[in-house]
Hints:
Layout: H1 2-37, H2 48-85, H3 89-93, H4 96-115, H5 119-124, H6 126-141, H7 154-172, H8 174-183, H9 187-219, H10 225-228, H11 230-261, H12 268-291, H13 307-314, H14 330-334, H15 349-378, H16 383-386, H17 390-402, H18 415-418, H19 422-435, H20 440-452, H21 461-489, H22 494-515
The structure holds protoporphyrin IX containing FE.
Amino acid sequence: MQAFIALYGFLDLVLRAYLLATQAIIMGGVAFLTLVLSPLDGKLDAEESPIARRCLRILFWSCCASVLGEIVAVVVLTAMLVGTLQVDLAVAASADAVVSHFIAMILSGALALYARLDVGAFFKWRAGAVALALLLACAHVGVTHAASRPVASALLVTTEIVHVLAAAIWIGGIPFLLVALGMTKSGEARRLIASKFSRNAMWSVGALIAAGLLMMTRHFSDLSALYETNYGMLVSTKIVLLFGLLCFAAANLSTTRKLWRASSIPIRRLLRFSEVEVGLGLVTLFCAAALASASLPTDGGAERTSLSEITARFAPRWPSFHSPAYAELSAAQAASSVAEPGTPSPPSAADIAWAEMNHHLAGVFVVLMGFFALLERHRPTAPAVRHWPLLFLMLGGILVIRADETAWPLGPIGFFESLRDPQIVQHKVIVVLIATFAIFEITTGAAAAFLLTHYGHTEGKDEVLVAISHTPIALLGVVSASARWLEIRLSDTPAGRIGGYVWPIAFILSGLLLLLYREE
Ligand code: HEM
């Protein structure tokens, strides 16, 4: 049970991100079917039914995925409450958050049944699907800060519901737009679908930003909390990701406007940019999920860092490649006492030098990879240049050995025992992602998302500073993943060629940040 409680924070984050993503697709799907396809009833000729059927199928499977996730959430949360509060099962199962998950499970199940209807019946009874989707957003907000306030404010709860719905209609609707545009051959149908969706998306973006800013006025006592607290760092990261999302959305809007004037224009760039929007949207949802486990700046529970501490931490200094001997580390010295995983002692100077060395080593590899990738654009046949991805394996190998000095292979704690520590689990996840960078774009994006939410679980000031150091590296990872995706998917177009330069440069920049990494 202790192992489970230690790991709960990380499990809750991944589960929450999974539920936010599946439920965004559910709400986005219902919105796409009722606000885009249904109003175009009879205007899309023969293509209408196959498109709607495919969208209903995606909706059905997203609902099933959500039901599964909610069942796991109910079980995990109930077990957590029984384990930590020593209450009996009935009391734990009646906790507000457990009930919210239970309701979301029922609603997702009901929507799955709705999605099994044939197209005609679904459009006829679509009001019911809309009502269920709205209730699903309400049930989700039941497990957020807005609902867990000592005195829940109707305005704050409603604002968060609007924020979650707006994010879902926009980001959750894009997969359905991709499917619909991918299945239409007629320029006329594409023109109608794209312009109807982009109008809904524009309203959603407006509502999302307004609601997000309104919630900020309630959850932040001052603007400096945006960079002095973990919660603030996560919201700032969302704002930066939103900026990226809006760049691609704006480019797609201009294509949609051209499509409106001439329905024969190619939509390949619109489709690929929409795919990048989905990726950026998923990373943002991952960030949003981490918000729930961070203390609100207004609650005063979270330690704050200061601008002077941040500038001191980022002050450029030559990277040191001096690594203390393993015997000097706290982990080695504590080995005889076999410290319990999950009870971190303050890092010693040797521990800090060891951690900085890990980041500096990783920095060398990442800069080299970016450099070789750039070189490969001009000398594609040179063998040394062409096999640069092998550097990932070397980096993965080094991190497996050095990333967690308390555990296997260097430390006294065994491999499986070490998986009780959420920090070690996340390191292992990131190392596996690094080793599989062969399928580069997706794993880079996933690793960046994990890096964005990797710190800040203990709310200590040091954690805020470490989170601040890692966030720009992770955001550059998101840029690399998006640019690489465009390089591959739009290789023969200007956007693809630009992508081919952007990602190696973003890689080199993140490598330089790793070389400047400091823990004191
Ligand atoms: C101007 C940019 C944004 C601001 C200021 C903002 C702010 C916030 C705030 C303050 C919360 C409340 C979290 C809590 O404490 O419970 C929140 C939640 C949320 N945001 Fe945003 N947000 C922004 C952009 C976005 C974007 C672009 C997305 C999605 C693509 C998004 C998705 C969400 C979701 C799904 C939640 C609910 C999280 C949960 O369930 O815990 N937000 N946002």
